[in-house]
């Protein structure tokens, strides 16, 4: 998924009046910073599910952007899949409160009520109960239950074209005997979203009426941070460009996710385009992670950071014994748990690494990021058609892990890295977006990684690679 510490979700309601049965969205979480008793995750007082439910009309009056949409298939008889495990990494305490992405669940309210007991302590969570979608395209699904995230009206209401990520899950996969049909709901939901068309002018007009422009459309506000979730790009007008990750039970069903995919049906999962682009996740991947951990116990630390947002013995004992997170007072000991690394993406198009983005070497970038900014790079997120001109480029990206030192970089590359917790980024979102002038001035005064000056303001340095840098890179690579 796009992980953007420098751009947090924005949620604004056009009508400032309260809607019966719901608190005002802006004040839903009271903007009070609280953490669980271990200090590992953001925590809030338990909320009744009725307080976070949005009707379609309420969602239509809301401008959601930079959020996470979770499409979940399930009903009152479906097995619980544990949505808490999905939410916990998105509520890790090494993110500041204003950096948390709003999560919107779209699915059957009967199923979500059963999961809510494990979700009611997390802030910035909303639910849009999906409605029955009747279409000739879905007639062959004779057992389709009421309340599935296939309704395009519901998807448009939550601004799925402005989301940072759409996750498609199903709790009904084990209820089907035919293995070839176990992933039918997830695949249909993915294809349904990809075939949608959007008019970006509507969202821009609505947003501007409240003085807010969704991320990627605002060209006036400067951003000097080298850390970006994704490159700023025009608004999405077709569903094909929406970032989607789909859960699959059977690896062979990956062939149905992309209509323009030319992969052979017998191709292994890890060699297919959806897997390389990060749009498909199969259960078999967990088996590979377990095998890798057996041969290298250091991988477990990386997996914890990537998948769980971090874990401590106290947290594991609490979940094992009580199966719940408790709120706690902020003490120096618990607040110290926030000081842990997190995953981020470096943009090479601008910022302090732009000089390496045009023909530079990955090894030089690795050494510069590590020595200057204490960032550990471990992969590249590259456009599939990076060699083509911008108008003909495909928006799909794929991951290149642990490239060699001499690997050439291109300006559109995004770099996966682990970065230190930034204590100086905990200011309110309002102060960050008050004006482009004030945000630029404050960024110059900050000593954090978010205030690194761009290369346009610094003299160009020769692209030289010292031998000691390369030696250090090789040592890190061996580790």
TrEMBL record:
Molecular-function GO term, any one: large conductance calcium-activated potassium channel activity
Key word Ion transport present: yes
Origin: domain of life: Eukaryota
Sequence segments annotated as region (Disordered): 429-479
Residue stretches in coiled coil: none
InterPro entries xref list: K_chnl_Slo-like (IPR047871), RCK_N (IPR003148), Slowpoke-like_C (IPR048735)
Residue intervals of the RCK N-terminal domain: 65-226
Recorded GO CC terms: postsynaptic membrane
Keyword Membrane among record annotations: yes
Biased composition (Low complexity): 429-454
Keywords linked to the UniProt accession: Ion channel, Ion transport, Membrane, Potassium, Potassium channel, Potassium transport, Transmembrane, Transmembrane helix, Transport
Membrane topology: Multi-pass membrane protein
Biased composition (Basic and acidic residues): 463-479
Subcellular locations according to the entry: Membrane
Organism: Molossus molossus (Pallas' mastiff bat)
Protein name from the UniProt record: Potassium calcium-activated channel subfamily M alpha 1
């Amino acid at each position: 998924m796009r992980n953007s510490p420098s751009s947090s979700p924005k949620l604004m309601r056009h009508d400032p009046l309260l809607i019966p049965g719901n608190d005002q969205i802006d004040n839903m979480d009271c903007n009070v910073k609280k953490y669980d008793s271990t200090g590992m995750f953001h925590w809030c007082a338990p909320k009744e599910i009725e307080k976070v439910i949005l009707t379609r009309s309420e969602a239509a009056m809301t401008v959601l952007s930079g959020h996470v949409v979770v499409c979940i298939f399930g009903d009152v008889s479906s097995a619980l899949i544990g949505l808490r495990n999905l939410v916990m990494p998105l509520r890790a305490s090494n993110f500041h409160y204003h950096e948390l992405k709003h999560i919107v669940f779209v699915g059957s309210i009967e199923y979500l009520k059963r999961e809510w007991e494990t979700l009611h302590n997390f802030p910035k969570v909303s639910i849009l109960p999906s409605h029955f979608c009747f279409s000739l395209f879905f007639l062959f699904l004779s057992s389709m239950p009421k309340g599935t995230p296939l309704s395009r009206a519901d998807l448009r209401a939550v601004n799925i074209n402005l989301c940072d990520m759409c996750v498609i899950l199903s709790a009904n996969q084990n209820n089907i005997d035919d293995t070839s049909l176990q992933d039918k709901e997830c695949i249909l939901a993915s294809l349904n979203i990809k075939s949608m068309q959007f008019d970006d002018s509507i969202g821009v007009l609505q947003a501007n009426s409240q003085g807010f422009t969704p991320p990627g459309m605002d060209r006036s506000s400067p951003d000097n941070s080298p850390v970006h979730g994704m490159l700023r790009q025009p608004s999405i007008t077709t569903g094909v460009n929406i970032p989607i990750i789909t859960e699959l039970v059977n690896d062979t069903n990956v062939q149905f996710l992309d209509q323009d995919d030319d992969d052979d049906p017998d191709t292994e999962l890890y060699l297919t385009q959806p897997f390389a682009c990060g749009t498909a996740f199969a259960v078999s991947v967990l088996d590979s992670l377990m095998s890798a951990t057996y041969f290298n116990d250091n991988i477990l630390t990386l997996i914890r950071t990537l998948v769980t947002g971090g874990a401590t013995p106290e947290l594991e004992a609490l979940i094992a014994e009580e199966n719940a997170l408790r709120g706690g007072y902020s003490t120096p000991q618990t607040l110290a748990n926030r000081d842990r690394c997190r995953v981020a993406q470096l943009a090479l198009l601008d910022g302090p690494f732009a000089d390496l983005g045009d023909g530079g070497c990955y090894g030089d970038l690795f050494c510069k990021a590590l020595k200057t900014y204490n960032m550990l790079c471990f992969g590249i997120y590259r456009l599939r058609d990076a060699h083509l001109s911008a108008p003909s480029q495909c928006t799909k990206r794929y991951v290149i892990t642990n490239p060699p030192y001499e690997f050439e970089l291109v300006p559109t590359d995004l770099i996966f890295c682990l970065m230190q917790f930034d204590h100086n980024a905990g200011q309110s979102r309002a102060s960050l977006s008050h004006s482009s002038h004030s945000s630029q001035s404050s960024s110059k005064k900050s000593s954090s990684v978010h205030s690194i000056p761009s290369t346009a303001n610094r003299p160009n340095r020769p692209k030289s690679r010292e031998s000691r840098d390369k030696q250090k890179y090789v040592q890190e690579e061996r580790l």
